[in-house]
Amino acid sequence: FIQMLRSAKKRDVLQLLRKAPEEMLPFVVETAVAAQSVASLAALSDFLDFSKEPKSLLEKFLYAAAFSPRPSGELLHLVLDKLDGKQLAPEVQETGIVAVGSLVGKLCRQKLCGLQEVERGVETILAGLRGAKEESEVVIYLLALGNAALPKTIPTLLDHAEEGPAAITTAAISALRQFPARHISSKVKRAMRRIFHEKRKNYEKTCRLAAAEILLDTEPSPMDVINILLAAKELETETATFLLLKVRNSLS
To answer: For 130-136, which contacts have Cβ atoms below 8 Å and span 24 or more sequence positions?
Structure first.
């Protein structure tokens, strides 16, 4: 079916979308995304009305885009256009932002970071993060940055990791864990030490554990291992046991 759509003209793909039985429509949308031909993406652009379509169909489209193994710049362009300047259901908006992060990350891994669509995608996420008022919104944009895993966003993630409330700190550290070890610099490690050892303020247990995991998973120094083990003595048994297992795994 994908091969057929790749050789089809836009009007044929559009006709298929419009005439597909309701129960088959999500499958056809997903397949049109997978085809990623100029015609199939143009047909999807004409067919999908984000102000009218049911949320389930829009989310199916966005998930299909996010999980595409080798997305194109045209696919990211389509997703951005559908999200741009529209009043969307919160679930659709959130799924869309996370999908943008995923597409940006995959395109950069294909050495396509210089595409205009990628730059637009990154700015969309960063602008949304700057303008987010609710904690839940901030978390979504941080997750998107984690999916994108662009080194230039690490300072932004560190700011949120150290200064945010628990949910935001956890999301920012989770985003940092998506980065390859080569990007976990001494600056990142210093911030994780401050969080784990609570140098600036108190953090919830989950935040401290996440910070410790970054330290232990990225070529830990002997002093980091010693300090984490010493700190574990002051923690409850379950948490201390978890850290001890992480240290053993790291050493092995």
So the answer is: 135/165, 135/167, 135/168, 136/167
pLDDT above 70: percentage of residues in the chain: 100
Let me know: does 183 contact 160? Beta carbons within 8 Å. no
- Phi, psi (deg, nearest 5) at residue 88: -115, 160
* Least-confidence region, from 4-13, 83-92, 128-137, 173-182: 83-92
DSSP annotation of 121 reads: H
Q: How far is CA 175 from CA 58, 76, 109, 241, 252, in A?
A: 25, 21, 17, 25, 25
Give the CA dihedral 191, 192, 198, 201, nearest 10 degrees.
50
Of 206 and 85, the structure prediction assigns the larger pLDDT to: 206
Give Cα separations from 36 to 62, 81, 99 (angstroms): 14, 16, 16
Q: What is the pTM of this model?
A: 0.90
Confidence of residue 202 (pLDDT cuts 50, 70, 90): confident
CB 133 within 8 A of CB 89: no
Contact 39/9 with Cβ under 8 angstroms? Answer: yes
